[in-house]
Design goal:
The chain is an alpha/beta fold. It is about 30% helix and about 20% strand. It has helices spanning about 1-15, 50-55, 85-90, 110-120, 130-135, and strands at about 25-30, 35-40, 65-70, 95-100, 120-125. The radius of gyration is 13 Å and the shape is globular. About 40% of the residues are buried. Bound molecules: zinc ion. Zinc ion binds near residues 74, 75 and 84.
Length: about 140
């Protein structure tokens, strides 16, 4: 199930191109125990990142326990948009987050994950990493 949701997030990632560039094409899926309840991907620079795009769809809706699946570590710093890691940390409906790849950008690189862990959410890294890396690596800073 988790793998299926991450592959759905990868499919969202692909939708971000080419409008998202130079930002990496990230995809995000939010699911409950059975189904996907929201999907998102990186919008044009200055607009919603994938996580914010998905969170927007469940704004104001009640859920007991949600899991988020995102192809790349959520951003930790305010750029043109508020930090996604903070938005996730503050959303009490999301209990677990699966991140496929850690962000190699030195401005992030684990800091996004730390913010979410400090909010007492479970963080899992590496789900479908091979599949996601094959697609995403060419768009990441190294
Ligand atoms: Zn972000």
């Amino acid at each position: 199930m988790d793998e299926m949701f991450m592959l759905a997030a990868l499919a969202q990632s692909r939708k971000a191109l080419p409008e998202c560039l130079p930002n990496p094409p990230v995809g995000c899926v939010i699911g409950d125990t059975q189904k996907i309840v929201a999907e998102g991907y990186t919008q044009v620079p200055g607009k919603h990142h994938a996580e914010a795009d998905a969170l927007k769809q469940i704004q104001g809706k009640a859920f007991n326990l949600l899991k988020m699946y995102v192809t790349l570590e959520p951003c930790s710093s305010h750029g043109h948009t508020p930090a996604c890691a903070l938005a996730i940390a503050e959303d009490c409906r999301i209990h677990e987050i699966y991140v496929s790849l850690v962000d190699s950008d030195p401005r992030n690189n684990g800091q996004g994950l730390d913010i979410i862990r400090k909010a007492s959410k479970k963080v899992y890294v590496g789900l479908c990493a091979n599949e996601v890396n094959t697609f995403l690596k060419q768009y990441l800073l190294r």
